[in-house]
Write a structure and sequence with these properties.
By secondary structure, this protein is an alpha/beta fold. The chain has ten helices and four strands; from the N terminus they run βαβαβααβαααααα. Strands 2-1-3-4 form a four-stranded parallel β-sheet, sandwiched between helices. Helix 4 (about 95-105) runs antiparallel to helix 5 and helix 6 (about 180-190) packs across helix 10 (about 275-290). The longest helix is centred in the middle third of the chain and has 34 residues, at about 125-155. Mean pLDDT is about 85; it is low at about 15-20 and about 290-300.
């Protein structure tokens, strides 16, 4: 039996390039390539590790099978990696350095095989080539991310509807999902008349109300209900939150990121509106006057 290695297949996340792909065909092709590579090299497959629709460039993305791969390398369950190319494994130099440390300290023969050639991480030349390739891949991803960010901001500035999954209250084409829009309107008016967000949340939970991103069998969380009722999108205002902000901050208030035209007026989107600006602002004002726990919302003045 040849050296036991782990095969790894990965493709970037859905929507990173805005092409709507799901990645399944890509990882299947990569797995086929890995099997051919193993056969040609006389290597034995210990396990095929697959991370579909997950970026190897974004630092905060958790790739479960990649973590399993690294763990199995460290404990000696496998003695190498086989992949279509090194950028399938990582596009982050810091991750590559961790892998190099494992290879340098291993007390057994190790393999790092790709369809583009092997990397001998036990040698200076091998480490240099691996580092160079990962640095180039990292730069390519950073450039692509900037292009996508520019495209998305331009899209937002022109008032076009958000891409991706629909928001609660709307259909995919930007027209209203009538029963959801009615639910939002009723809840807003109830809050302006003194009802607590917690009470609205409980009512929605009893009705098993779900949003487009709610996991199967779950209802909307309290935080999600509050966000739905105060989202500036309800009155047509277009917000744009850069990816860098999303990755660095936890809870983000979209009202802090409303796009403005040169005259200072808000950018208004091309989708149907659920309520007026005055109504959603009144709800925001009422909730902002509540306690920090959001459970003691006072009655709005008449």
């Amino acid at each position: 039996m040849g050296i036991v290695v782990g095969g790894y297949a990965r493709i970037s996340d859905v929507g990173e390039l805005g092409d709507g792909r799901d990645g399944k065909e890509g990882v299947v092709r990569q797995q086929d390539d890995v099997h051919v590579l193993l056969k040609g090299r006389g290597l034995t497959l210990g396990r095929m590790y697959v991370d579909n629709d997950l970026s190897a460039f974004k630092r905060r993305v958790f790739r479960p099978d990649y973590q399993d791969l690294i763990h199995d390398l460290e404990v000696g369950a496998i003695s190498g990696i086989a992949a279509y190319n090194i950028d399938r494994i990582t596009r982050q130099p810091r991750e590559l350095e961790h892998i190099i440390d494992i290879y340098e300290t291993a007390r057994r023969p190790m393999v790092f095989a790709t369809t583009a050639g092997d990397y001998d991480l036990a040698t200076e030349d091998g480490r240099f080539n691996a580092r160079l390739y990962v640095m180039i891949a990292n730069k390519f991803s950073a450039d692509a991310a900037r292009r996508v960010a520019r495209q998305k901001k331009s899209h937002a500035t022109s008032g076009k509807t958000h891409q991706g999954q629909r928001a609660f209250g709307w259909k995919q084409d930007g027209t209203l999902e009538d029963w959801e829009a009615e639910l939002i309107n009723r809840a807003q008016l109830d809050i302006l008349n003194g009802k607590l967000v917690a009470e609205v949340h409980n009512e929605w939970a009893e009705k098993a109300i779900q949003g487009p991103q709610t996991p199967e069998g779950k209802s909307l969380s309290y935080t999600s209900v509050r966000y739905i009722l105060t989202n500036p999108r309800l009155c047509g205002y277009r917000a744009y939150i850069p990816v860098a902000v999303r990755e660095k901050q936890g809870r983000i208030d979209p009202w802090d990121h409303i796009l403005e035209r040169t005259d200072g007026s808000p950018v208004v989107g091309d989708w149907d509106k659920v309520c007026s600006p005055d109504q959603v602002r009144a709800v925001v004002d009422v909730l902002n006057r509540g306690s920090p726990r959001d459970g003691d919302v006072r009655r709005a003045p008449p």
